[in-house]
Amino acid sequence: MCHRVCPFSEEREEMFTGVHCVAYLSPAGTTRRVAERIVRALQQQGIDPFVLDLACRNKQFYAQGESCCLWLGSPVYVDHALPQVQRFIRGLPEGESFYAVPYVTWGAVCSGVALPEMTQELQSRRWRTVAAAKVLGQHSSLWRSAEPLAAGHPNEEDLLLIDQLVAGTLEKLKQADVVPLAEQTLHYLPGDQEQQSWQKSLAKAIALQSPHQPDHQRCIRCGGCLLSCPVGALVWRDDYPHVEENCIRCHQCTRICPQKAYPYDADAVEARIRGFAAASREEKCTQIFL
Ligand SMILES: Cc1cc2nc3c(=O)[nH]c(=O)nc-3n(C[C@H](O)[C@H](O)[C@H](O)COP(=O)(O)O)c2cc1C
Q: Do the beta carbons of residue 53 and residue 166 sit within 8 Å?
């Protein structure tokens, strides 16, 4: 039996034939670092996982055989998992003995409902969440800040917890009866804060922001921003880069642009984020759930 899932394109280049797949979307690189640690920990146990960067449009995921385990990483954006990651889950084949370990990286503001949301989506495809993690990572909107939130994270201490996550998950998967995480485990935010998180969304936040397009007076049409976009939201239009609707405001284009053609009010962004971080009662630490 071979089920095909393709995040973006119809092209097929590599095929998942093993039991473990580590998939992630990581605009600024932190979620990828955690994925790399998961891969290393699996390899130390003699497992060679299939690795899927969801930003690569020429790779596909096949869940093959009787059973498999998907390690799936997303950064938290406005208290949720990235829409592209959720869409990837919705495209998964329905599984009987398919297991998942969702993990998120978050910038010390609020991890929100990203994990329960990913778990619910996985469950709707009958993938059972056996473990999960939320990993602190330097806030990727604050790259111009002298002191970004969660600077230096994930550090070695955080990554040692990832080693524990892998070891604990493999132990669980060895059991004849694999016990999924209890439903309430991932509802760790205080009631009203979780409620507020469910009401937030990246789309609503973007609707309040000014349009994100390059300034044609500054742009030299080098095309670097198109290559930097992890979700394929940039296209050429009338000879200039144009940001499409599916932009997630990761600002990789802003960061890479040698001409500073993309407007970015770093001070205003920082003030807003620090306000949200101060209002959140969530403990700013990495946590694993087994
Ligand atoms: C548009 C945007 C929204 C974000 N929203 C949140 C958030 O709601 N809570 C939080 O703690 N961090 C938030 N972050 C920070 C990222 O979740 C964090 O830095 C993450 O580790 C980035 O992962 P990456 O390096 O793999 O892209 C946000 C970052 C961006 C760019």
A: no
